[in-house]
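Example record for the data management plan.
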Amino acid sequence: MLSDFGIMLLFIVAAFAFIGGILLFGKLLRPDRPGEEKLTTYESGEEPVGNANIQFNPRFYVIALIFVLFDVELVFLFPWATVFGQATLIAETGGLWGWFTLTEAFLFVGVLALGLAYAWAKGYLDWEKPQPKIPKIDSPVPPELYQRVNERYSR
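Corresponding structural encoding:
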């Protein structure tokens, strides 16, 4: 007879075997016909031009983090509403449970609004299109060689 840990280990091994089997089945089933167009770099609908070693605007990351923060926090309101919106608890407390939970929800959303106001006041939500800073380095490779490589792979 297996112990509880043995059963869990068996489930974990079965999960990895299932995932590996599905990936192997997919590799055997799907067509593999790479072409020149399929192998090109393509991001955000624009073909890359020039050197990729430029600085990205950190506002991309700040806005993404702010979005994730508020998105995840607002998702917590749904389980909160189901747990605290029980009619039996509200009836047993004479309506005080409903007022308590409503106050708690307003405090929660108020803290989120305060965080949003702080990010807005600090200018984290302002969007400015920065001019990319092209790095200037001394390279032993001549620029014409880079241009030929770019032309070769841009076809």
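Summary line stored alongside the record: The CA atoms of residues 9 and 15 lie 10 Å apart.
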